Amino acid sequence: MSSAQEPDRYAIRVQGHLADRWAAWFDGMTLTRRADGTTVLDGPVADQLALHGLLRKVRDLGLPLVSLTPTPASRRRPRPSCRARSTTTSETT
Question: How far separated are the first and last CA of the chain, in Å rounded?
Answer without folding.
Answer: 32
